[in-house]
TrEMBL record:
One Gene Ontology molecular-function label: iron ion binding
CDD domains: IscU_like
Superkingdom of origin: Bacteria
GO biological process: iron-sulfur cluster assembly
Protein name, per record: NifU family protein
InterPro entries found in the cross-reference section: NIF_FeS_clus_asmbl_NifU_N
Domain NIF system FeS cluster assembly NifU N-terminal per the UniProt entry, residue ranges: 9-128
Originating species: Brochothrix campestris FSL F6-1037
Classification lineage: Bacteria, Bacillati, Bacillota, Bacilli, Bacillales
Residues that span the membrane, as ranges: none
Length: 147
């Protein structure tokens, strides 16, 4: 059973890597940030449109390994339609999951994120998985917007 679950999770990651959701740029973003992982070369440019504390749109461009791109794809899918506070709670839980700790805010609604739980077994890959999430946290922490 565990082997079947691992295979399913690999398929989810590969699907998000090959066909990333929300790939591209926004012309009306309120927040943007570029971040990279110098240890492996992963790079993300994140665009967010936030209105009244609600993340209405999230897109990204960049390059990187399958885990980095899949995580960015899943992250943008997950945070759209959530408030900043909710997105940051999910991000905290994602970080906890990457450390092998309990994660209460990752549920059926954003369950695809569980596909990345196995990354916790490979410490060198955790930064790949968390790059987009750290970018989102940093972008939302800035008070400056492009509007």
């Amino acid at each position: 059973m565990k082997r079947n679950l691992d295979q399913l999770y690999r398929q989810v990651i590969i699907e998000h890597y090959r066909k990333p959701r929300n790939s591209g740029e926004l012309t009306n973003e309120t927040h943007q940030i570029e971040m990279n992982n110098p240890t492996c070369g992963d790079q993300i440019f994140l665009h967010l449109k936030v209105v009244d504390s609600l993340i209405e749109e999230a897109k990204f461009t960049g390059s990187g390994c399958s885990i980095s791109i899949a995580s960015a794809s899943m992250m943008t899918e997950t945070i759209k339609g959530h408030t900043i506070e909710q997105a940051l709670l999910i991000s905290d839980d994602f970080s906890a999951m990457m450390q092998g700790q309990p994660h209460a805010h990752i549920d059926e609604e954003n369950g695809e994120l569980e596909a990345l739980a196995g990354v916790a077994q490979f410490p060198a890959r955790i930064k790949c998985a968390t790059l987009a999430w750290k970018a989102m946290e940093k972008a939302l922490a800035t008070t400056e917007t492009n509007n």
